[in-house]
């Protein structure tokens, strides 16, 4: 039996639905390169860094580009993505998120963000979620992307708790693996047949409660 003291949340696909904005910007960029990039391909970009996303798109198109051009393309994609982020409001918070965060606060749980995104802070500000977080670890603070546990281990450290006292909430396979590699409990958000390594899987956070979290202590 372990005692859980903290919750670490992925951002994109768990707290807010930004996947469509990422897709739109990458698809437009892929088009300029003459690469056919589908919604199905986009699944592979979940939880993965910006540069790794571009590498995957180039792999799909069987293309290679010099590193400086790849950096410029990442910049270009992000500029376009940020136009959509600038329009974001709290209406884009996913179902059950605010209620669950409030319940966690009321019960004294510590809360951190563990995201691959370098835009995480801005998105939390736009959606008014920032005040819930005791620590933010994002793409600006890590060198190793998920499934490396670095982002979550740094989150635990920033909160002053042990990894085994943490639960991670993740929608990406690589993110679930990162949680498990860090010896943390993991709640998958999405499909059970995809997030097979998660301790439990929910469709969204409306299915979560502090009581359900306590059940994870017994597992
Ligand atoms: C992750 C998303 O949260 O952040 C990925 O799931 C994205 O799709 C990654 O590529 C990096 O995001 P950003 O905002 O730094 O380009
Ligand atoms: Mg995600």
Walk me through the structure:
With 219 residues, the chain is of the alpha/beta class. It folds into two domains: 141 residues, 3-Layer(aba) Sandwich (Rossmann fold); 67 residues, DNA polymerase, domain 1 (Orthogonal Bundle), CATH 1.10.150.240. Helix content is 42%, strand content 11%. The protein is built from nine helices and six strands. It has a six-stranded parallel sheet with strand order 3-2-1-4-5-6, sandwiched between helices. It is globular, with a radius of gyration of 17 Å. Magnesium ion binds next to loops.
- CATH level 4 superfamily of the largest domain: HAD superfamily/HAD-like
Which whole number gives the mean pLDDT?
Answer: 96
Contiguous uncertain segments of 5+ residues: none
User: What's the β-strand tally?
Assistant: 6
Q: Describe the largest sheet.
A: 6 strands, parallel
| Radius of gyration based on Cα positions | 17 Å
Would you identify the CATH architecture of the largest domain? 3-Layer(aba) Sandwich
What's the number of domains? 2
Hetero ligands: 6-O-phosphono-beta-D-glucopyranose, magnesium ion
Strand order of the largest sheet: 3-2-1-4-5-6
What is the element layout, followed by pairings?
Elements: E1 6-9, H1 19-32, H2 39-42, H3 50-60, H4 67-85, H5 97-106, E2 110-114, H6 120-126, E3 135-137, H7 150-159, E4 166-170, H8 173-181, E5 185-189, E6 200-202, H9 210-218
Parallel strand pairs: 1-2, 1-4, 2-3, 4-5, 5-6
Helix pairs in contact: 1-4, 3-4
Write a short abstract of this structure.
The chain is α/β, with parallel strands linked by helices and 219 residues long.
């Amino acid at each position: 039996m372990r005692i859980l003291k903290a919750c670490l949340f992925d951002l994109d696909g768990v707290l807010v639905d930004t996947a469509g904005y990422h897709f739109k910007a990458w698809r437009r960029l892929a088009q300029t390169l003459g690469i056919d990039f589908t919604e199905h391909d986009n699944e592979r970009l979940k939880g993965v860094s910006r540069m790794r996303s571009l590498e995957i798109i180039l792999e799909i198109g069987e293309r290679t580009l010099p590193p400086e051009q790849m950096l410029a393309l990442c910049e270009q994609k992000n500029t376009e993505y940020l136009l959509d982020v600038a329009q974001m409001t709290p209406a884009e918070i996913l179902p059950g998120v605010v209620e669950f965060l409030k319940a966690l606060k009321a019960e004294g749980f510590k809360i951190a963000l563990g995201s691959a995104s370098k835009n995480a802070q801005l998105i939390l500000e736009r959606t008014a979620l920032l005040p819930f977080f005791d620590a933010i670890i994002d793409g600006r603070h890590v060198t190793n992307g998920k499934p490396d546990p670095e982002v979550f281990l740094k989150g635990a450290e920033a909160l002053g708790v042990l990894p085994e006292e943490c639960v991670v909430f993740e929608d990406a396979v690589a993110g679930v693996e990162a949680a498990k590699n860090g010896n943390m409990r993991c709640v998958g958000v999405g499909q059970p047949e995809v997030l097979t390594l998660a301790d439990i899987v929910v469709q969204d956070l409306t299915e979560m409660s502090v009581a359900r979290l306590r059940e994870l202590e017994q597992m």
